[in-house]
Amino acid sequence: MKLCIVGGRLQGLEAAYLARKAGFETTVVDRDVEPPARGVADRFLHSAVQDLEGVLPSFDCILPATENIETLTYLDETARRLGVPLALDLASYRVTSSKLRSNELFASAEIPTPDPWPQCGFPVIVKPSGSSGSTGVSRVFNEETLNRALAELGKEVVIQQFVGGPSFSLEVMAHRGRAVGFQVTELEFDAVYDCKRVLAGPATGREVEAEFRRLGERIASALNLSGIMDIEVMSPDDGLKVLEIDARLPSQTPTAVFHSTGINMVELLARYWTSGRPPDPLPAGTRGKAVIYEHLRQRDKTIEVSGEHILANAGHLAVMSNAFGFHEFISNCQRNPLAWEATAVIVEDTEDLARKKRDRAIQNLLEAFRCETLLDPSPPDE
Question: Does the predicted TM-score (pTM) go above 0.85?
């Protein structure tokens, strides 16, 4: 299959990496000269998407890896006119790209979410409606700080009760609202609430799996979703609370699921949009291997675990197998061994074995790059 991936940053890197695992022939398109996905794709086109009309018919499928609504609208219209499958449900994406519209959907479908301000007390989470990931997210403990955050973010803002507990993610694929769920993964965050680590494995998320799948099916039905959607929840003592949804290929979690279960969401997504055949349900009892997937960077003799935002401007990355004791090490360290970024993947039979293997690999990294310190920041308490 010839796959055109429009966008070469974080989502594009995810798409190119998994497309490569599927054996697809990939072309990444981006306005930037050195996006992270460039080194993972078979071919790179430095181009604006509006200049691609002449080459788009040569592809079997177009996979958007951008959140720019103008670009997505153009691709949707152009792909329809040219008769090339586009791996996107634009109507669902328009809803999920706005946290305000998503919350309206949750309310109408009676999906549990954190309580909104001012019905809840402090602390609260403040986040812009139209941004994904950790961009603009802050946790505030009083009215003065809240007013300051609102002045910085502007009008389209979501304010919700801060909910503690572990965070989990689930991807579902659906055909006209009928969804199939994949593997539940656990998320860990850095000091600015950006996901720094994804965990997948035989025991990971087992206690929330059944409830989470039911939520995924209800949300997909309410959206009448066709294609893929990512759901993020928190798990306090009183049941799951949905934080956000995105009807597009996410970054990070699909790779963790692939290394754990062998399920390749890019392969399934491309085949769905080219054949119309929805994916089969996950076989009962599928638990997979234990995976630790995390982002690292090195500066000034220090290696720091950090959110995936560090990769956005890292230039093109190379995939190295069995480097430093990791299953895979996706990095620019060969270009600059004094200041690099990387995504590191550990795969083992159990979560305990994965943690031990990860610790040994980190020690190998410290020694290989003559670093003295490992930092692993988490969100602040207060």
Answer: yes
